[in-house]
Specification:
The chain contains 23 helices and 13 strands. By secondary structure, the chain is an alpha/beta fold. Helix 5 packs across helix 21 and helix 11 packs across helix 12. Bound molecules: 2-acetamido-2-deoxy-beta-D-glucopyranose (2 copies) and zinc ion (ZN). Belongs to the metallo-dependent hydrolases superfamily. Adenosine and AMP deaminases family. ADGF subfamily.
């Protein structure tokens, strides 16, 4: 016993002596260097800021520190509760002013604020409504009493129903509830992913009758571009199934008609807003379909892209991945372009799941095997090292939609979003909104806020914002010359933004 203590003292003494000389403290200069090296790797870490940008960056940092120290931190809360706080945030107000480039992941059925659909569209003449057995609604514009359908027995003219009910505001609010996920009690109302997805799919079906009415569709698309433009977004890649669109007399238009209409609306909007770059469509079909139907859809998409090369960007499969068929299931359909020797760019949703190691989780790697141009969500990418490496090497950007991931219950506190890892490594990435009308957002500012303040934390700076904005042009489907024009347009806006806020 005694011996061992003596031995300990003997061996420890020289060490203690050494420690007192160097203090045991690592070299501060080396520490500084490592920190700078690490920051350099993050999204926007390599962006050199001008003096004016540095001034705004310091201001933003101060604001962020204040928000992080406050009793309630919006990114840690459910978006439906955080929204009023975010609206008051001076960072959010700056983000609204900031030119954000393009929105590359938005679905057509949820492009425009629900308020407009209810307060404007449902007040038009010839609008019929029907309440379904599963507590949902259907709408239909018709010049005569619509026939009963399997899901809809009794159609009522909305004008007559409103007159009968009297309480127009209350009734309109109930309609709004049918067309969005927004609620004051998200945790109570949506206890699980299954429940929130069920409502999600219901909303899409309910909205369809309103926005597939041909005259409404034109105004809807125009309004969608206007809402983005108002939020300083200058470009859109819209995922759309090109659903059958109808006239008052029941005439139905085909997909080519919808693409032509989309082209006309975009042209008209650009004529009135020369600082808007444009809009394209990613044709998408539901992953609930069988292989032959997806095969037909791929063939059709190839044809439509030939007819509308400026409008059609490519193809995607939509719908909940966890309960839907995975990409590998559709391999025969998805290999069709390669087999035919034609190109049809893919923009697959992949890895929008918490279920690590499942077939669904595998979508990430399969999307890359099918040469996807970008990855929708890529929520699971952070724990697929090989897929991550491939996606980085091939410049396949992840479309990060933070609010969507939170509302659809993949993550609750956005500080824990796996994209924090991707951001810290500077993985190719863009920010988007997925389904703005369902989540009660408009434009991209809300999602930029969550990514910048919540996911990026204090590390994310003005360089991060700049890179994320430029990325939306860099990783868009636009041909090189339009990317250049788009970048020049964005740069003018950016410089004006900086000089107005520094
Ligand atoms: C409905 O919306 C259209 C398109 O935005 C607009 O021109 C019209 O004035 C609106 N009507 C009403 C009653 O708000
Ligand atoms: C993906 O790209 C590689 C390399 O260009 C090509 O060999 C392969 O056929 C493509 N696969 C598909 C499914 O398009
Ligand atoms: Zn999506």
């Amino acid at each position: 016993m005694l011996i061992s203590i003596c031995r300990a003292v003997v061996t420890c003494l020289p060490l203690l002596w050494l420690a007192s000389v160097t203090d045991g403290v690592p070299d501060p200069a080396k520490r500084e260097l490592l920190m700078r090296e690490e920051t350099f790797r993050q999204t926007g870490g390599g962006v050199a800021l001008t003096a004016a940008e540095q001034k705004l960056d310091a201001h933003l940092r101060g604001l962020k520190e204040k928000e992080m120290a406050a009793a309630q931190f919006p990114p840690a809360m459910h978006f439906f509760k955080a929204k009023p706080l975010i609206q008051k945030s001076p960072i959010f107000k700056l983000l609204q002013q900031m030119p954000k480039g393009g929105a590359l992941h938005v679905h057509s059925s949820s492009l425009v604020s629900v308020e407009w659909l209810v307060k404007n569209v449902t007040y038009r003449p010839h609008c019929y409504i029907c309440f379904t057995w599963d507590n949902s609604v259907r709408f239909l514009f018709s010049d005569r009493q619509p026939f009963p359908r399997w899901d809809c027995f009794y159609w009522q003219l909305l004008e007559t129903l409103r007159a009968k009910i009297g309480d127009a505001a209350g009734f309109d609010n109930s309609l709004i509830q049918h067309l969005t996920l927004v609620t004051v009690d998200p945790d109570g109302e949506y206890p699980s992913q299954d429940v929130v997805w069920e409502k999600f799919e219901k909303v899409f079906i309910a909205t369809a009758g309103l926005i597939t009415h041909a005259p409404v569709l034109r105004e809807y698309l125009y309004k969608g571009l206007a809402e983005l433009h108002l939020d300083n977004v200058m470009y859109l890649e819209l995922r759309s199934g090109l659903s059958r669109t109808y006239e008052l007399d029941g005439t139905v238009h085909d997909k080519a008609w919808i693409l032509k209409t989309f082209q006309e609306v975009t042209k008209k909007f650009k004529a009135g807003h020369p600082d808007f770059l444009g809009a394209r469509i990613i044709i998408s079909v539901h992953r609930a379909l069988e292989v032959p139907a997806v095969k037909a859809a791929v063939k059709e998409a190839i044809q439509l892209q030939k007819e509308f090369p400026d409008v059609v960007a490519g193809f995607d499969l939509v719908g909940r991945e966890d309960s839907g068929r995975n990409l590998w299931y559709f391999r025969e359909a998805l290999s069709l372009p390669a087999d035919l020797g034609v190109t049809l760019p893919y923009f697959f949703h992949a890895g929008e799941t918490d279920s690590e190691g499942t077939d669904v989780d595998q979508n990430i790697l399969d999307a890359l095997l099918f040469n996807t141009t970008r990855i929708g969500h890529g929520y699971a990418l952070a724990h697929h090292p090989l897929a991550k490496e491939m996606s980085r090497k091939r410049n396949v950007a992840v479309e990060l939609c933070p609010i969507s991931n939170q509302v659809l219950k993949l993550v609750s506190d956005l500080r824990n979003h796996p994209a924090a890892v991707l951001m810290s490594e500077g993985h190719p990435m863009v920010i988007s909104s997925d389904d703005p009308s369902l989540f009660g957002t408009t434009g991209l500012s809300y999602d930029f806020y969550e990514a910048f303040v919540g996911i990026g934390g204090l590390k994310a700076n003005l360089g991060t914002l700049k890179e994320l904005s430029v990325n939306s042009i860099r990783y868009s489907s636009l041909p090189a010359h339009l990317k250049e024009a788009g970048y020049a347009m964005w740069k003018r806006k950016w410089d004006a933004f900086i000089s107005a806020h520094s």
